[in-house]
Here is the input.
Amino acid sequence: QVQLVESGGGLVQPGGSLRLSCAASGVILSRYTVGWYRQTTGETREMVAIISNDGSTNYADSVKGRFTASRDNAKNMGYLQMNSLKPDDTAVYYCYIQSYWGQGTQVTVSS
Here is the structure.
């Protein structure tokens, strides 16, 4: 079955960087769009970034110019590079592929 495992979250100071990874198994990643979403307590899960199987990307306005989605189809991996992090970026981040969600990874931006 399809399994998605996110990693790379943690505590970082404002202005810092993190790189999230999404390891996919049970699916041929090259065929699908990879989505990155985030959610804070009591809020709706929101789209952060999408990278299509042709490599085209789309970002939420709040992260444009700071976040970059990428993929390595040979490794069945998706990535989200997050720079210039702000406290408002604090959330649990999820990857999403073909109706499947990972378990999420916590990102906390605080001094």
Notes: The first strand starts at residue 3 and ends at 7. The two ends are 40 Å apart (CA to CA). The CA atoms of residues 23 and 77 lie 5 Å apart. The mean pLDDT is 97.
